[in-house]
Write a structure and sequence with these properties.
There is one protein chain. The protein is about 15% helix and about 35% strand. With about 300 residues, the chain is mostly beta strands. The strands form five sheets. Strands 17, 18, 19, 20, 21 and 22 form a six-stranded mixed β-sheet that branches. A four-stranded antiparallel β-sheet has the order 1-2-3-4, with no helix packed on it. A four-stranded antiparallel β-sheet has the order 5-6-7-8, with no helix packed on it. Strand 9 and strand 10 form a beta hairpin. It is globular, with a radius of gyration of 30 Å.
């Protein structure tokens, strides 16, 4: 009987030991499974894109540049490294593309970027698709350019477009260049230089002939707006008549735009303005295609621009 009791006790001890190992292994299996599920969910979760309209948008998540033309139902990977879209003198957020450095419209996409080539020289290039991302092309706008700061690309129609870039900044001086295309971006020609070396704030064309460059982002005291009326062949300073009341208040011109049968422009208070909270702008109009500008009214952020 004593032997039977001892044998039974040994069997129970072995059973408890084996059971403990078994349950420890069971506890480990669900833990690993949860980790794998989390990883899978993170990899397959829907992208959180930035939309330019109801259908078209982009995403920079997972260090990939992707675009959609159907509200995110399908995504197209853009054949470019994300960092190339931010190269140069840029210290802003890299979770969104730089304003005006890209164009997204239904079926079309353009990305302006700086590219260091095999000779350690920098070129400014334009990556594009015109067929919903099925195929991509790449065009060199300028093959040699210094460290880029300001960058902007826009097309007014299927053929005419422009690129405005600045670089080689030293303190408050830099070089600004305008490039024009008349064949949809296949070939680019440099416009005549404005000979202004102040830091550019913005620029743009309202037609194939009439364009503007606005300078002076560091402590401006008056707007410095330059105009071309011959497609970039020549530039001249626009005459902006600032009422005495707004002297040194409205100091930085934005890009003019067409309104009815005249041109209009908003002139803001620059980075240090404090008039009416610093947000009020002056609206000016021109009846001679941008040569001279007259004050029309104050515009607050809550008022429409037209």
């Amino acid at each position: 009987m004593k032997k039977i009791i001892i044998g039974t006790a040994c069997i129970m001890i072995v059973g408890i030991f084996v059971g403990t190992l078994f349950y420890e292994n069971l506890d480990a299996i669900p833990t690993d499974s949860k980790q794998n599920n989390i990883t899978t969910l993170e990899q397959t979760k829907p992208l959180q894109p930035f939309y330019v309209d109801d259908l078209t948008g982009y995403s920079l998540e997972n260090d990939q540049v992707q675009i959609t033309f159907n509200s995110g139902n399908e995504w197209i990977e853009v054949p470019i490294e994300k960092e190339k879209l931010f190269e140069g003198e840029y210290s802003g957020s890299k979770t969104e593309l730089i304003d005006d450095s890209y164009i997204l419209s239904q079926g079309h996409a353009y990305f302006l970027y700086s590219n260091e080539n095999d000779s350690n020289e920098t070129s400014i290039e334009l990556l594009y698709t015109k067929n919903d991302g099925k195929t991509w092309g790449n065009i060199v706008v300028v093959d040699r350019y210094p460290l880029i700061r300001f960058r902007k690309v826009e097309f007014l129609n299927d053929s005419f477009g422009y690129v405005i870039i600045s670089g080689d900044r030293t303190m408050s001086q830099e070089w600004t260049n305008v490039y024009i295309t008349k064949d949809g971006g296949m070939q680019w020609k440099e416009a005549t230089h404005s000979n202004i070396t102040r830091l550019i704030s913005d620029g743009g064309f309202v037609s194939e002939e009439i364009g503007f460059l606005s300078f002076g982002i560091l402590n401006p005291e008056e707007p410095d707006l330059h105009i071309t009326q011959d497609g970039g062949a020549s530039w001249r300073e626009a005459n902006i008549n600032i009422p005495e009341k707004y002297n040194k208040i409205f100091v930085l011109a934005e890009v003019p735009f067409k309104e009815d049968d005249y041109l209009a422009v908003y002139i803001n208070q620059g980075p240090n303005g404090d008039y009416q909270g610093g947000k009020v702008k002056g609206k000016f109009i021109s009846n001679d295609n941008g040569k001279t500008w007259e004050f029309l009214m104050e515009v607050t952020p809550n008022e429409p621009k037209i």
